[in-house]
Amino acid sequence: MLLVFDVGNTNIVLGIYEGDRLIKYWRLSTKSNQTVDECGIVMRNLFLHNELDYRQVKDIIISSVVPPIMPTLEEMCRQYFKIEPLVVGPGVKTGMPILYDNPREIGADRVVNAVAGYELYGGPLIIVDFGTATTFCVISAKGEYMGGAITAGLGIAMEALFQKTAKLPRIELVKPKKVIGRNTVDSMKSGLIYGFIGQVDGLVRRIKAELNCDAFVVATGGPADLIADGSETIKKVDHLLTLEGLKLIYKLNH
């Protein structure tokens, strides 16, 4: 079995593959201050609860945008799984030409998403990943990573309204029935949800105009369904895109 980790600023998504089949996946909170043993016990409990044998894991691959957590996570793999993990980064084969000015600047999650997206949907392709930050990745028809855009995520925007204003409350991210809110909470929901939908559609249209061609648009990440429901440009939501990309990169390197 192959164990894959996608370490984000807010969540860690991990999954178990048996061949090409994803058996199980979980979403955990990212905690940079966890010890090796705390991390290992959580992993053992996840396997035990789902009646899986952790001793059947033969390989591990990790994509991370949180450097402080990596020494702990890598040591956990060595101590609890007896495996040296493959970490996505410089020197790891991806099969995708990177046209960024400095390829080392690209978050590993963006590259992993691009590899999976091109394999599954072809190109030209635009991937919108709704995480702590919202990222837009552009892949050419020839499978080249062209670049993209980065903006604040939905959660960051919501917390900024709560923390930086005296009277606005923290709200639940639920799509309101109408754009015109009749109270403060509904007005905030409208501004956040419909504002992000407009932002996504506006950026995607500008990217397509710059490409001078149409491009398939796939979304991933926690709030992807919420935004895609009102978007005119998102054609597909794929919550397992990053895990699939990790599996493909693992295969390329073995």
Summarize this, please?
The chain is α/β, with parallel strands linked by helices and 254 residues long. The protein has two domains: 2-87, ATPase, nucleotide binding domain (Nucleotidyltransferase, domain 5, 2-Layer Sandwich); 103-241, Nucleotidyltransferase, domain 5 (2-Layer Sandwich).
What do you see in this structure?
By secondary structure, this protein is an alpha/beta fold. It has 2 domains: 2-87, 2-Layer Sandwich (Nucleotidyltransferase, domain 5), CATH 3.30.420.40; 103-241, 2-Layer Sandwich (Nucleotidyltransferase, domain 5), CATH 3.30.420. Helices cover 38% and strands 24% of the residues. The chain has 7 helices and 10 strands. The chain has helices spanning 36-49, 70-81, 108-121, 154-164, 184-211, 224-228, 241-252; strands at 2-7, 11-18, 21-29, 59-64, 86-87, 125-130, 133-139, 145-152, 216-221, 236-237. The strands form 2 sheets. A 5-stranded mixed β-sheet has the order 3-2-1-4-5, covered by helices on one side. A 5-stranded mixed β-sheet has the order 8-7-6-9-10, sandwiched between helices. Helix 1 crosses helix 2 (70-81) and helix 3 crosses helix 7. The longest helix has 28 residues, at 184-211. The chain starts with a strand and ends with a helix. The relative contact order is 0.15.
